[in-house]
Amino acid sequence: MRYIRYAFLGVLAVVLVAIAMANRSMVELMLLPEELAALVNFQQSLNVPVFLVFFGGIVAGLLIGFFWEWLREHKHRAAAAQRKTELRKLERELKKTQAERDKDKDEVLAILDQSA
């Protein structure tokens, strides 16, 4: 299975390098459209290769998706934490009840009851 993963990552690397080599031409990225930039008197632009725009879009989409899922699953994580806290409380209560039940018993019988 490890070799399949390495082969997949190798093929993916070759494909990404081929895309980058085929899209090396420079493009100008502007923060705002020209009309809006003239209105607010703020013009910011950057010259970058096309493949950086492409890969940056992929990374931004992944990050937004991961964050969205993290927010969506919050209720499940909160419920799991609540159940974990309740389980610990019940385990402590059970140990206390067993200790009270076994306090008048012989030590050997109490140990046998706890192991069963």
From TrEMBL:
Q: Keyword check for Membrane, yes or no.
A: yes
Q: Where is the Lipopolysaccharide assembly protein A domain?
A: 42-94
Coiled coil segments of this chain? 80-107
Record field: transmembrane: 46-68
Any GO CC annotation of this UniProt entry: plasma membrane
Q: Give the UniProt keywords, A-Z.
A: Cell membrane, Coiled coil, Membrane, Transmembrane, Transmembrane helix
This chain belongs to the protein called Putative DUF1049 protein
Taxonomy of origin reads: Bacteria, Pseudomonadati, Pseudomonadota, Alphaproteobacteria, Rhodobacterales
